[in-house]
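Design request, tokens follow.
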């Protein structure tokens, strides 16, 4: 099918679908707004992660992570940025909790930096008590403010030592090292933390870390690296779940889950069986890769079939997709008390054959092509198109595939590209939150078991290989100012209203929210515009004044010496 025909088909599809007012998701309903509220006790919050926000990369005994090292190499990150300081969350967490309190968050999602606790990755080596104290203080202050901590154990910052010594997630020994780290976290924090996420978005760690090399540790092991890393990550997840289950659950009464990221994949032509299967493959290779072993005991059949066939065609004796033994399958199956879902966008998918050969990769193994509708809004990151209806479909897919598990949405949000003039009036983000949260509400009405929602992210922060060029925050952070001040964007006011109404009460009220939010943001904009002046004044007091004083003292000393010489 030519690209032009495909696009035409796409437009026809979009048009015919937007005319349909039916509420049933299976009938492709898109666009209509549903007024209603969430169940009592629904949990609202926002999130961030250690490397993206903490800064203090070499302070108080912290060891290096693969991200510290990767970001310091030239040419890896946009403008060679690093998160050495980022939002300075390590020092400013009290201020941040005040922001959360004002927004009436029920929870806050953050991650623990493994090398801040075990600087060399290994328990036997050294436990960094200062690192423990930081997380203790953070957790205690959250609880004092009635904010539930949702804690991720691995948000991509593997201790560098483990990479150098063993090859990181390419090596099976990571399973035990990660288990030791998790076990210590349960021991030290588990009396207060009741929601644990083992891994954040392992798809990215595996594919971008070991297949494309765009992320740390930057390996390009095409066609094998990602599968191997994922295999060990899944085993590590299961081991940590069992550790909690056998050693801590009865005392601590918490839950252990995993957070998986997935785009939704929609067939380009919904009447074409090959496109339907390609779209399903897209989601199976994305989320199913991790979720199917954890919920159903093994990799998705379609992954085993495709990768197995292509490996055989390459002349390999075994599949590039590793195999779980039957014991392992039983051990891994059922190791999830709740499923975290990170979701940002959607793709149209069509079938495309990639002949197998030396260029095999995770991407060609799937035999498909991803497309986007050029009319989808894409305000920020290149990959992020706003397609709210895809969210409801993904949530329903999870419900049917994995036996309606308890779900927490662990990431959802939208970025903006850095502009020369900062705009705190983030219209498109309000629209994104409104529409995506509304689709989640529809999914709830469909019977999907969603318990909470985490806006991504609380603050603008380091956006991995994109550096600071993409801003996801509800709060704008001025990274040029040493104090990293935070400024609320309009979406703060908007999200606040969703939280206080626990949803969308009625049309009249919801429509007034946007107006009220934009009224406040224009005055904040002026404040921010004045900020360069403030930073300049700070520079005057902190650098110029001491320098001038030192010079004066020196001059006075020289003058005095001359005087004294003249006298004797
Ligand atoms: C998923 C990652 O988990 C998160 O760290 C990142 O900020 C978002 N994607 C947006 O790219």
């Amino acid at each position: 099918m030519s690209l032009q025909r495909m696009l035409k088909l796409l437009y026809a599809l979009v048009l015919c679908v937007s005319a349909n007012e039916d509420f049933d998701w299976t009938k492709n309903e898109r666009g209509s707004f549903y007024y209603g509220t969430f169940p009592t006790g629904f949990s609202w919050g926002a999130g961030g992660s250690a490397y993206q926000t903490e800064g203090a990369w070499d302070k108080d005994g912290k060891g290096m992570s693969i991200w510290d090292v990767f970001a310091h190499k030239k040419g890896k990150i946009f403008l060679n940025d690093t998160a050495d300081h980022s939002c300075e969350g390590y020092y400013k967490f009290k201020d941040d909790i005040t922001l959360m309190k004002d927004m009436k968050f029920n929870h806050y999602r953050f991650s623990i930096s493994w090398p801040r606790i075990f600087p060399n990755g290994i328990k036997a080596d050294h436990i960094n008590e200062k690192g423990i104290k930081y997380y203790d203080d953070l957790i205690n202050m959250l609880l004092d403010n009635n904010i539930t901590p949702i804690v991720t154990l691995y948000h991509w910052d593997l201790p560098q030592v483990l990479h150098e010594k063993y090859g990181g997630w390419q090596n099976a020994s990571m399973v035990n090292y990660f288990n030791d780290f998790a076990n210590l976290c349960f021991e030290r924090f588990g009396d207060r933390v009741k929601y644990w996420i083992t891994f954040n978005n392992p798809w990215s760690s595996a594919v971008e870390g070991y297949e494309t090399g765009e992320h740390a540790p930057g390996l390009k092991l095409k066609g094998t690296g990602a599968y191997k890393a994922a295999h060990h990550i899944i085993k590590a997840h299961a081991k940590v779940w069992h550790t909690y289950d056998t050693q801590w659950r009865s005392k601590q009464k918490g839950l252990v889950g995993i957070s998986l990221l997935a785009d939704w994949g929609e067939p380009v032509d919904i009447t074409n069986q090959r496109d339907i299967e390609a779209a399903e493959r897209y989601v199976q290779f994305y989320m199913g890769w991790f979720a199917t072993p954890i919920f159903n005991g093994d990799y998705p059949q379609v992954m085993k079939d495709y990768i197995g066939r292509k490996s055989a065609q390459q002349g390999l004796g075994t599949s590039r997709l590793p195999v779980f033994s039957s014991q392992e399958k039983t051990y891994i199956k059922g190791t999830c008390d709740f499923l975290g879902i990170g979701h940002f966008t959607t793709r149209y998918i069509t079938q495309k054959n990639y002949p197998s050969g030396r260029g095999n990769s995770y991407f060609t193994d799937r035999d498909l092509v991803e497309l986007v509708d050029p009319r989808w809004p894409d305000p920020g990151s290149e990959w992020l198109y706003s397609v709210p209806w895809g969210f409801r479909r993904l949530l329903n897919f999870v419900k049917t595939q994995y036996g309606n598990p308890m779900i927490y949405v662990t990431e959802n949000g939208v970025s903006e590209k850095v502009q020369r003039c900062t705009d705190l009036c983030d219209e498109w983000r309000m629209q994104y939150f409104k529409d995506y949260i509304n689709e989640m509400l529809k999914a709830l009405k469909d019977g999907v078991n969603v318990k909470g929602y985490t806006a991504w992210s609380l603050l603008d922060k380091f956006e991995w290989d994109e550096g600071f060029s993409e801003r996801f925050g509800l709060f704008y952070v001025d990274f040029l100012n040493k104090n990293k001040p935070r400024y609320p964007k309009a979406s703060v006011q908007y999200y606040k209203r969703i939280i206080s109404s626990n949803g969308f009460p009625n049309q009249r009220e919801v429509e007034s929210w946007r107006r009220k939010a934009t009224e406040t943001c224009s005055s904040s904009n002026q404040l921010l515009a004045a900020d360069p002046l403030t930073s300049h004044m700070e520079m005057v007091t902190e650098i110029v004044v001491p320098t001038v004083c030192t010079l004066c003292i020196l001059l006075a000393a020289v003058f005095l010496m001359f005087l004294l010489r003249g006298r004797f």
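Comment from the thread starter after seeing the answer: thanks! The chain has 19 helices and 17 strands.
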